[in-house]
Amino acid sequence: MKKKANILLVEDDPMDIELTLNAFKEVRLENDIHIVTSGEEALDYLFGRNRYADRAAHPLPDIVLLDIKLPGLSGLQVLQKIKNTPVLKRIPVIILTSSQEESDRINGYDFGANSYLIKPVTFENFLTVVKQIYDYWLTLNIEAPLV
Amino acid sequence: MYVSLIQNATLLIAIIASYELLGRISREKSVSRYLLIGFLFGITAVMGMLMPFHYQPGIIYDGRSIILTLAGLFGSRVTTLIAISISSAFRILKGGAGVYAGVATIICCAGVGALFRRIYHRNLMNISLPMLYGIGIVTHLVMLACQLLIMPIPSGSAIVRRIWLPIMLIFPPTFAGAARLLQNLERHLKNADELKKWESIFRYAGWSVIIVESKENTITAYNPAISTMFGYSETEIRGKRLTDICGHETQKNLDQCFEKAEKEGSCRFEGIFLRKDGSTFPADVEVMAHRDAHGRTLFYALNIRDITERKEAEAQILHRNELLNALLQISRKLASTLELPQVLKTATDSALEFLGLQSTAVYLLEDGRLHLAATSPPLPKDFPEDLRYVPLDEHPHIKQALQNGSPLLLPDAAQAELTIAEKQVCELRNLRTLLYLPLLSPQETLGILIVGSVGVPIKIDETQIDVCQTLAYYISLSIINARLYESIKRHAEELEAAVVRRTAELEAKNRELEAFSYSISHDLRAPLRAVKGFAEIILRRHRASLNDEAMHYFDNILESAEYMGQLIGDLLNYSRLGRGGVSLKSFSLAELAADLAQEFAPSFDKVGARLVIQPDLPAVYAEPILLRQALTNLIDNALKYRRENVIAEVVLTAARADQWIEIRVSDNGIGIAPEFHEKIFEIFQRLHSRDRYGGTGIGLAMVKKAVGMMGGTISVESVPEQGSTFIIRLPAA
Prior knowledge:
The complex is a heterodimer of chains A (147) and B (733). Chain A has 147 residues and is an alpha/beta fold. Chain A has five helices and five strands; from the N terminus they run βαβαβαβαβα. In chain A, strands 2-1-3-4-5 form a five-stranded parallel beta sheet, sandwiched between helices. In chain A, β4, α4 and β5 form a beta-alpha-beta unit. The longest helix of chain A is centred in the C-terminal third of the chain and has 18 residues, at 123-140. Chain A is globular, with a radius of gyration of 14 Å. Chain B has a six-stranded antiparallel beta sheet, with helices on both faces. A five-stranded antiparallel beta sheet of chain B has the order 4-3-7-6-5, with helices on both faces. In chain B, strands 15-17-18-20-19 form a five-stranded mixed beta sheet. Chain B is 56% helix and 18% strand. In chain B, α1 (2-25) runs antiparallel to α2 (31-50) and α6 (129-150) packs antiparallel against α7 (153-204). The termini of chain B are far apart. Chain B is an alpha+beta fold. Chain B contains 18 helices and 20 strands. Chain B is elongated, with a radius of gyration of 64 Å. Chain B has helices spanning 2-25, 31-50, 64-74, 77-94, 99-120, 129-150, 153-204, 224-230, 250-264, 308-335, 340-355, 396-404, 420-429, 462-542, 548-576, 589-607, 624-640, 699-709; strands at residues 53-56, 59-61, 208-212, 221-222, 266-274, 280-291, 297-306, 359-366, 369-376, 389-390, 408-410, 431-440, 445-454, 585-588, 610-613, 619-622, 649-657, 660-667, 713-719, 723-731. Chain A binds chain B through residues 13, 15-16, 18-19, 22, 26, 69, 97-101, 119-124, 126, and chain B through 518, 521-523, 525-530, 532-534, 536-537, 540, 561, 565, 572.
């Protein structure tokens, strides 16, 4: 059995947060899910700044689930920052959004997103997506050494 | 006897010569002249009778028969009667045995003459010599016949027998000779008359005529017009030679023309001639050689016409032509540009060149003020600024020209009365002769063109002013054109700026709209997802604790959320349609149809429907994604609105119709009532309740939008409860 995975969920919509958490709970996976609700907070977490200075309590995530539309810094800007930072750039970033805009998809991949997923409308599908993310990125995928 | 008769006849002829004398005294056709001639004939007959041939006492023969025949033939009735009276009286006075026969002879001969006068009537001068001889024979035969009739038979016939041969030998030829002499006399007198007429014509003719015997000889004859033309008195000219009155350069022409006239009879040339005072004039000369019967030239007649006026007119026309030609060049130059400064520069420069003047200026009227717009040569840098504006009150010449709308010539500024301002300008530019030419358009005064000479006054004639007016007209036209061009250019620039502004506005609006649809896709979906997600969670985890009613409501929530998701999706598709741009291209409709058939196969199979595709579909000229979307929606609808208990059949066909390609999607479904045939293409327009036929009311609106973007149209033909045919018409490539 794999060790408990750390997931950083960057999502401002409380409903979506709850749905995501529910989905993870439903598929009964052992995870530590860290939630941040804005781009700035996400970067604080990843860089271990301010209230996330304690790395033990807030470890670097194994994957980042990133929404695009966020208050303040957008998801794409956060993505750029992650991929331009040597210590962070190898963390898989999965964009989980409701935007099907072509420009978002193109920019997402260009800035180095590892995957681009559309938030399913039904909960059932949500479960499937979460399960597959877990199976693929946290189980199957061999991650690169971070540094 | 012969000698006496010949003597008598000769005398008669000599005396007849006096007829000529009479003719010279008077040529009038009057009774007194006829009387005089009658006397002459009578006296002549008497003279003949005084020198007779005496046959025997009382019987005498003389030339009276000839005289009286001539009197009858050539004289008038009066003349004849006088001649008869005089000679008869004399014969009676003389008396003797032959009185009766003598008088009879007189009357007979006059009668015969008068008879022939009647016969020949007006042609007396042309009776030939043999004919005259014939008349002589006739008259003397008549005379001898009279002798036979009147005199006693034995003696009469004896006399006639003795006398007839000498008489007939001598008298008829004498008659013929005397008559010919009279004819010639008459002819000669007539010729003299004719000559007098021609002399008059020669004398009073409008042109000048000189007659010389050869080129080198002095002038022998001329008419008075010559002395007027050459300025000599009538006598002075007589001693001159042609070479004296002919210009130096014309001598050669004269030589050549005389040679030609000698050969061909006449010749014509134009040359320069000299007057007595040394001045010259151009003339047109015609030389005619007059020859005698042997072809020898007797003299040359020169007809000289002064062509000064013609030459001047020609020169004037030539000058005018040159001006007009120059004008044409200028008008071309003016037409070659539409920029006002360039037009004005061309106008001032060419006006200078055109008139050979030294200074030009164009003043233009703008905002009610006349200001200096261009000059040639350019103004010096220190030209006073205040002189660039021209208050009309200070420049009365300009004002007058503008008010009259016609050119104004100021022959010499130095001699004219000028205002202080005018004087200042003239002195600064050293102007002397000035020509003011108003620049006018049909509606308004544009300004004024002023041309002037510098330093010295010059002469400007009517022709030049005339042509200058035309020049001013051309310049006016060019100014109007340049102004129009300027305003068009300005408008175009304004329009362009407006287009740029509007485009920017539209682009901003478009971005806003995009942002809006982005929001819809993201923001509306999030709460929807929550509604649906949590409802599902409740159903999954708490189904056991819910009663039937709660379950039913949860089902309603889920169903509504589902529909809302569908609505949002369709709306997004509709607004995004063709956002990537429409680029039409030719492609195979058959391939697209095959794709669609494959895509729809499960749906058709599911309800047992059939999709029939025309085997040889043509190529279409369209945007593939848009056309695919349109056909997808139509096939989708055809499948959705099928009739119960009827095997649904959807048919896709296409054909060319004029400049269109018509694509038809037909079904055997429920059909559409005619009143809805147009309404169905409006967005959110639904004809059925949602629980019967699902859908958002966006599908056909999307078809219409997609087809419209490709430059096509959509229409429907349908009979309720039988089926519908949707027709997409696209422009053929």
